[in-house]
Amino acid sequence: MARYTGNVCRLCRREGYKLFLKGTRCESEKCAVDRRNVPPGMNVRARTRRLSDYGVHLREKQKVKRIYGLMERQFKRYFRMAERMRGNTGTNLLSLLERRLDNVVDASGMAMSRPHARQRINHGHFTVNGRKVDVPSYLVRPGDVVGTAVRERSQQATADCLTLAGEKVIPNWIVVDSGAKTVKIVNNPSREDVRFQDIQEQFIVELCSK
Question: What domains can you pick out in the chain, each with its CATH number?
Fold first, then answer.
């Protein structure tokens, strides 16, 4: 599966928004958005011009794709799934993205960032209901238990991440057991449970529904 391998700080600068792709670095004085909050590139006029309505909608879609580490084909697949579900399409889309295994691992504090969670999952450090899952896009369901592999290296890495996470705010739809190094999914995430509350999902629906 294709993925972005370039400088992730450029992505934050392009959106003018902290995407938290480098974990604790994003909260330090080294954050690129805090140090230089202008879009990357050489053409200053093009970088500062006013966006059209289409541009505003497109930037919102790009922001969500970059927050969750998705390519265009993956994003379209989630949008089609959200359209087929009952209820608000935008809310359904965000709920599906929040249920991704890499997002759960990141939100629980068992990884330093979402890219780090994706890497750890690909390397087989996590299980779902006792079975190894190495697919970051795996969608968890209420009742699922995400655990750490029994290998000593996996257990130690998770313990280190939980220690560094400290007082990280845990979403209401998951319960973290730091001692057992597990995460239980208690229900599906609601719109209020999405960590990036300023996402304008209606812009994405309007853009993708055309």
Answer: 8-97+199-208 (1.10.1050.10), 99-189 (3.10.290.10)
